[in-house]
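Table 4 source record.
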Amino acid sequence: MNDLFSTNRRPLRFAMLVAATVVAAALTPPSIASAQTAGPQAPAAKTPAAQTQPADNQAAQSFSTDQRQAIESIIKDYLVQHPEVLQEAMDALDKRQKEADADKARTTIKENNATIFSSPHQVVLGNPQGNVTMVEFFDYNCGFCKRALPDMLDLLKTDSDLKFVLKEFPVLGQGSVEAAHVAVAARMQDSSGKKYIEFHQKLLGGRGPADKAHALAAAKEAGFDMARIDKDMDSDEVKKTIDENMKLADALGVSGTPSYVVGDEVVVGAVGIDELKAKIKAVRK
C-alpha cells in the first residue's frame, strides 16, 4: 500500500488539512475558543490531570462523533465542488520542489565547478577556451539522447565560442556500461576530440542497442587503434571516469538523460536547440 505521505498524495493531504483547519475553527466550542482568545487570567488551581493533558488533546476530545462526521462530510463536499484546489496545491508543491532543486543545483555546481567543467576525465568538443561551457550527461542507449544529437552538432557548427563537454552516464543497462567503457578508451587516444566525435555519432546515431560489440565496431570505423582500445577499456582511468560522472550526477540530482549543465543551472531532457541556445545566451549576458 502506498504511504499516505508519498509525493502523489501530498496535495490531497494539504487541501484536506486546510479545509479541516477552517471547519475545526468554525466548530470549536465557545468555551475553548474564548479560553484561547481571552486576555491574561489568574492561574487556576491545577489538578494532576490538568497538568498532564495537552490543550490540543482537550480540543480534539471536545468533538463528538457527529461533529467529526460533519467535518469529514464538509471536507469531502468542498473538494468535490472545488477540485481545482487539488490542482492548485499540486502546482504549488511542484513549484516549491523545482525551486528547491534549482537551489541545490546552484550550490552543487559552485562546490564542484572544476570537476563539472574542467575535469581531466571528460571529452571536450568545440572550443576548449570557449567563453561558455555546456556539459551533457548522456547514455548511448538513450532514445532522447539520440534525438538531441543534432542539437549538439548544430551548436558546435554555429557557436565558435562554445566549449562542449560530454560525460558518459550509463544508466540504461549493461550494454550502456560496456559502450561507455569503449567510449572512454577512445577518448584516451584522442585528446582533440576530432576522431571521438566521429565515433560518438556512429554509436549514438546507429541502429540497434549500444553494447560492447557495437561500440568496438564504431571505434574501428572511426580509425582508432583497436589493440589499445581493448587494453584501455578496463583500465583504472575508465573506472575513475565513470565513477566520477556517476557521483557528479547524483550530487546534481541528475537521474535521466540527456541532462545538461550550463552556467549555474541543470537542464533536464531533450529540450531542443532553441532552448539550449537561450540558456547559452543567458550565461553570456
